[in-house]
């Protein structure tokens, strides 16, 4: 140091590697980001000379310029989160209808209402029935959609390869990582309301709802409590 002037120092220069969209915690919404890698250089009289290593990689918000660790990209954008929630409710509705049968209009109407509220605003009863018919044909284990309510889903839920096991795990487990307890409970209750729309739980409906709760990382005691409370309210 001489006469208050900085003779030498270290400066970090940043290089943008790629960009995209993420949920910025500081802005509280979806924003564009730049993935940037820093290089430290020794400076003399403010002129960069020798490399002094790397400063690592950061995610920089294009709006507020706050820098984050790359782990921030693990959180879904609000757009992606809405799609995850919509797909989860759609999957639950199909699972409950498949377990309880599709002949009861109240249950079908409740399922359509739940799916529409979740984001599929153009969902129709015919669309759900068409998907149910395709599920039955694909599984090859049900003789007709009218008989769906008489089959146990215990093996289907726990077994590998069934559509129910695959779809529930793929739709619900990633969502559970980003939902608080109360949010996960609300998702389960949407399925319970569909099952209860045309009467008390059938055994197969109960099994499916318990599987939904497990995929949402809810404790068994909480699942039992929520399903019992929903049944008491519906009766």
Please describe the structure with a list of short key phrases separated by commas or semicolons.
single chain, alpha+beta, four-stranded antiparallel sheet, 8 helices, 4 strands, 49% helix, 21% strand
Q: What strand line-up does the widest sheet have?
A: 1-2-3-4
Rg (C-alpha, Å) = 26 Å
Number of helices: 8
Helix-strand sequence:
EEEEHHHHHHHH
Q: Average pLDDT, to the nearest integer?
A: 82
The biggest beta sheet reads: 4 strands, antiparallel
The N- and C-terminal alpha carbons lie at a distance of 82 Å
How helical, in percent, are the residues?
Answer: 40-55%
Q: Characterize the overall form.
A: elongated
Percent range for β-strand residues: 15-25%
Walk me through the structure.
The structure is a single chain. This protein is α+β, with helices and mostly antiparallel strands and 235 residues long. The protein is 49% helix and 21% strand. It is built from eight helices and four strands. The chain has helices spanning 78-100, 105-118, 125-139, 154-158, 163-176, 181-196, 203-215, 220-234; strands at 8-24, 29-44, 47-61, 67-68. A four-stranded antiparallel β-sheet has the order 1-2-3-4, with no helix packed on it. Helix 1 (78-100) runs antiparallel to helix 5 (163-176), helix 2 packs antiparallel against helix 6 and helix 6 crosses helix 8. The N and C termini lie far apart (82 Å).
